[in-house]
């Protein structure tokens, strides 16, 4: 076994804030502050707080532009920066609609405990689906896609990868973070729904964990009591490098606490050494994208 295991220097204690976002942005931000403060008073040693996809706005194609903000000068970037500093905690800021020029993106920011932005990921794969009698959603009506995979160093802990929701369906982003950049975890703020959530949410989180023998952390909005709006699945989740679910929320608003233990990664990789057994001399180039017209 030659490849080094990714370095997770010490246990990382995380708190996932599973919150529902309504139409009132100020109220959404206030709730984040309340829950984050509550998390840290319940568990003073929390290192990282994670928020859901679109935590400051409704998750609706026709609302993204209206709620969009510039980064870093916008209200939500400034709010998260100040909150991270005040609570002395790393914040993985779910995602927000970002505007740059004429384009709107679904963007996730991470702040260190001094309030500095240390990562920015624009959702690469837009959620465009159409399931008969299930759900139709087309982010690309208003959003533009990001164009890069994102990995970054979490101070004192090691390298992590960041994706947003639908990005989890594409194993390449996690593979880049884990294999090229030695990430010990993939973090995905995400808002699956009541059609695809029961089908694939756990399966995808566990698959990305097993593929790469890393932790996978998913933070969802809570289910909204109003049935006329997008129904997020809930079930914020942490999966260990064996693919085992080690923490999970229900459907309502709650905080999930979990500890990522660094000692598990080499143990898993020694026992099931797929990380060291890949046969790139055998695999063909699989970088071909099929077209619907090929079906
Ligand atoms: N917000 C999203 O990207 C939703 C993704 C989703 O529900 C899926 O099934 O994938």
From TrEMBL:
One of its GO terms (molecular function) is omega-amidase activity. GO terms for cellular component: mitochondrion. Residues 12-262 form the CN hydrolase domain. Keywords: Hydrolase. It comes from the Eukaryota. InterPro entries: C-N_Hydrolase, C-N_Hydrolase_sf, Nit1/2_C-N_Hydrolase. Pfam families: CN_hydrolase. This is CN hydrolase domain-containing protein.
């Amino acid at each position: 076994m030659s490849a080094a295991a990714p370095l997770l220097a010490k246990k990382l204690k995380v708190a996932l804030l599973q919150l529902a976002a309504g139409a009132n942005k100020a109220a959404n931000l206030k709730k984040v502050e309340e829950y984050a403060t509550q998390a840290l008073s319940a568990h003073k040693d929390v290192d990282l707080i994670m928020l859901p996809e679109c935590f400051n706005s409704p998750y609706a194609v026709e609302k993204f532009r209206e709620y969009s903000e510039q980064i870093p000068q916008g209200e939500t970037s400034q709010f998260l920066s100040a909150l991270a500093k005040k609570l002395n905690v790393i914040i993985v800021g779910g995602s927000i609609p970002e505007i740059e020029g004429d384009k709107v993106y679904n963007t996730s920011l991470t702040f260190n405990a001094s309030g500095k932005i240390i990562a920015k990921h624009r959702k690469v794969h837009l959620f465009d689906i159409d399931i008969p009698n299930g759900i139709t959603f087309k982010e690309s009506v208003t959003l533009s896609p990001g164009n890069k995979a994102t990995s970054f160093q979490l101070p004192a802990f090691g390298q992590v990868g960041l994706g947003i929701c639908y990005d989890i369906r594409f194993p390449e982003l996690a593979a880049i973070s884990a294999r090229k950049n030695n990430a010990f975890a993939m973090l995905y703020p995400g808002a699956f729904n009541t059609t695809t959530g029961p089908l694939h949410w756990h399966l995808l989180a566990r698959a990305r964990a097993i593929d790469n023998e890393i932790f996978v952390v998913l933070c969802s909005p809570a289910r909204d009591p109003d049935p006329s709006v997008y129904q997020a699945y809930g079930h914020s989740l942490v999966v260990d490098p064996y693919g085992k679910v080690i923490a999970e929320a229900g459907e309502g608003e709650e905080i999930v606490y979990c500890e990522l233990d660094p000692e598990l990664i080499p143990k898993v990789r020694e026992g099931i050494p797929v990380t060291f057994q890949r046969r790139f001399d055998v695999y063909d180039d699989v970088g071909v994208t099929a077209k619907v017209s090929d079906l």
